[in-house]
Write a structure and sequence with these properties.
alpha+beta
């Protein structure tokens, strides 16, 4: 777990960007076990500001959501 040794794990969201970014401006966002809701909101706002579309997932699963559809 990436958050295990962090001093502020509530600030660490998980993000998976689709490739190539210039064709698929999507980035999936998840909360880790100890990620705070503000961290997800801030990350989503940053991604929107650079023209990406960040769907926020309820829980992390293996692979991209698009691969599961």
């Amino acid at each position: 777990m990436l958050q295990a040794e962090m001093d502020n794990p509530e600030c660490f969201p998980v993000a998976h960007a689709f490739q190539p970014v210039y064709l698929l401006p999507l980035v999936e966002l998840w909360a880790g076990e100890r990620t705070g809701p503000d961290a997800l909101e801030q990350a989503a706002a940053i991604y929107r500001a650079i023209g990406m579309h960040p769907p926020v997932m309820r829980r992390e699963v293996d692979g991209f959501i698009a691969n599961r559809l």
